[in-house]
Design brief:
Among the domains are: 2-108, 3-Layer(aba) Sandwich (Rossmann fold), CATH 3.40.50; 127-282, P-loop containing nucleotide triphosphate hydrolases (Rossmann fold); 317-405 and 451-479, 3-Layer(aba) Sandwich (Aminopeptidase), CATH 3.40.630. The chain has 570 residues and is of the alpha/beta class. α7 (188-197) links the parallel β6 and β7. Helix content is 39%, strand content 18%. The N and C termini lie far apart (60 Å). The strands form 4 sheets. The protein has a 7-stranded mixed sheet, with helices on both faces. It has a 6-stranded parallel sheet with strand order 7-6-8-9-5-10, with helices on one face.
């Protein structure tokens, strides 16, 4: 990449070094592997007038190219893909785009002068950013517990607005302002623009990691949180309790997994902790021009703006026995093939939009994993008689992503049991073997439900449980267990318990990302699976009550969750 008038070489896994920077040009060598996350980070850092060059294999041969990224998505014991559906989709988007310049070896160069005219760039429009700056300053001058929320897509100047507002506030009066975010590097733009506005005095503008912020409770006049979705919601709740004057930013469609799914959950926190909030939407780009072709191209390739289509409840057929349920036996279930997704862009956007809405940390690379990983299957559910038509009209009601894990031989199982081997992407069997001492767990095959999501309009009608029933029947003769792992909260735990899954482990430590305890649950399918489930359940129930005081001494907010577990294993 070219930044600060210097050429810098980065490995793909170093792409995050471009966060907070402005880049003149990027040359991406796709022979080193195409990582959608890296492409999004680097492409989003390119400023107006910049260029992104992809060096690729010949397009007709690219899907069959032995992409180094296959190692990242191939689970241990599975064959590497021989064909990339993700790259096939990427080629279609490149070929259909009128803004992509395609230069092919041994072929005539395109006539750039005829098709691509350069025009003088218009001066940036700072009106949205100026309104955002005033909103941030009003947090300090106005009433307590009325935060400012800055929302926009990439390149609209959110981070710069935080920095400029901080500089102006410090110029006006001696203050202490705190900044937090994913990392100090990721908020560099805030400090850069603050320094351009005002000569920053030591300790007047300081970065705090989110956990240290909660722990130390520094005395500050204003807290700036850049990319709030990078911080667990439970931590954001604690921060809202401690600090009365806060300004947040969040990217609506971002490469790191933010979006509206996060804002729906975040709004609940704001409503419970604040007297109100001022939301400021920055829609005008600053880093590049309106309708920038590279921005539009990356949005399409990475599905940054994928959202599920609306759908009506009018066709729901509720059972007479329970008005809160629907008769899922009449719904149509299907394995959604990877070829279906590649050939139907509307279906792809609908499915990925659902996954993003339910799991706001969904990243662009998750689509590549879904399309190219050999051990991944996607299941969908539609209303009666609507399957083919709805697939075409992108009206899927719910989806589940399932990974096949385990099935190892005796030698490999012994190595896992002895902590001498950690096979990639076999989370649940490895956990039961290495942590619970159940060596048969890695010998049996498990279908782990990585994600399950139902449209909000259809939730609490039994649709999710119907989808689980279908998955159970589909794998009836293929695997020994169904399983899942998730960050435990009361509602999610209740769903899995009601679906006849049994808890087999709850993590001792809270996850830094979710600030919840990881919970593992299983449901037996085969006789061997039933034997293992009985052993795992007995082992868990025998230890769990004794662990409550020793391992979970400060878990009061989750007492209801733990009590529910105790009641179920009694």
């Amino acid at each position: 990449m070219i930044a600060d008038d210097a050429v810098k070489t980065l490995k793909i896994d170093q792409a995050k070094q471009a966060l907070g920077k402005e880049i003149a040009a990027v040359v991406y060598d796709c022979f080193s592997g195409f990582d959608p996350d890296a492409a999004g980070i680097l492409g989003g850092a390119i400023k107006a007038g910049g260029l992104m060059v992809l060096i690729t294999p010949e397009l007709p041969l690219w899907p069959e190219f032995d992409d180094p990224q296959f190692a990242k998505i191939t689970a241990y014991g599975n064959p590497k893909p021989e064909f990339s559906y993700y790259i096939k989709r990427l080629i279609r988007i490149i070929s259909e785009s009128s803004d992509c310049i395609l230069i092919q070896q041994h072929k005539t160069l395109p006539n750039l002068s005829a098709n691509y005219q350069t025009t003088p760039a218009s001066p940036p429009d700072f009106s949205d950013q100026n309104k955002a700056i005033e909103s941030i300053k009003h947090v300090v001058y106005g009433q307590r517990r009325r935060p400012a929320i800055l929302l926009s897509d990439r390149g609209r100047g959110k981070s710069a607005a935080l920095g400029i507002a901080a500089g102006q506030l410090l110029q006006d009066k001696a203050r202490r302002i705190g900044v937090t975010g994913n990392s100090k590097q990721s908020v560099a733009n805030v400090f850069k623009h603050a320094a351009l506005t005002h000569n920053i005095v030591a300790d007047s503008l300081c970065f705090y990691p989110a956990d240290k912020l909660i722990e130390s409770k520094p005395e500050i006049d204003l807290l700036l949180i850049d990319e709030a979705a990078s911080i667990p919601l439970s931590m954001l709740g604690r921060i809202l309790e401690i600090f009365p004057r806060i300004a947040f930013t969040s990217t609506v469609h971002g490469y790191e997994g933010t979006g509206r799914g996060f804002m729906l959950r975040f709004k609940e926190l704001l409503d419970s902790h604040c007297r109100g909030a001022e939301t400021c939407i920055l829609s005008t780009p600053i880093r590049w021009a309106q309708d920038d072709p590279l921005d539009a191209f990356l949005f399409d390739v990475l599905l940054l703006n994928a959202e599920p289509a609306g759908i009506s409840l009018r066709h729901i057929n509720k059972s007479k026995a329970d008005n809160s349920k629907v008769d899922t036996s009449k719904f149509e279930f299907s394995v959604i093939e990877k070829s279906d997704l590649v050939e139907n862009e509307s279906l792809t956007r609908d499915v990925f939009g659902l996954l993003t809405q339910a799991h706001y940390r969904t990243r662009p690379h998750d689509l590549r994993h879904l399309l190219d990983a050999a051990n991944i299957r996607l299941f969908g559910i539609c209303q009666p008689g609507q399957l083919q038509r709805q697939l075409q009209q992108r009206q899927i009601i719910g989806v589940a992503v399932v990974a096949i894990e385990g099935g190892f031989d005796h030698e490999t199982a012994n190595k896992i049991w002895a902590n001498q081997s950690r096979p990639k992407d076999h989370l649940l069997p490895e956990l039961l073997c290495a942590q619970q001492g159940l060596i048969d767990a890695v010998k049996l095959k498990t279908a782990r439900i990585m994600r399950i999501v139902v449209r909000p309009e259809f939730q609490r009608h039994g649709v999710g449980k119907g989808l689980l029933t279908h998955i159970f029947n589909f794998y009836n003769h293929e695997v020994d267990l169904l399983g899942t792992t998730f960050g435990a909260n009361l509602a999610v735990l209740q769903f899995w318990l009601d679906s006849e899954f049994m808890p087999v482990r709850i993590g001792h430590n809270q996850s830094r990302n979710s600030a919840t305890h990881a919970c593992a649950m299983i449901k037996p399918i085969s006789p061997r699976g039933n034997q293992l489930a009985t052993l795992a359940g007995n082992k868990f129930s025998g230890n769990f009550r004794y662990q409550l005081r020793a391992v979970f001494p400060s878990i009061d907010p989750e007492f209801a969750l733990l009590k529910l577990l105790c009641d179920r294993i009694a």
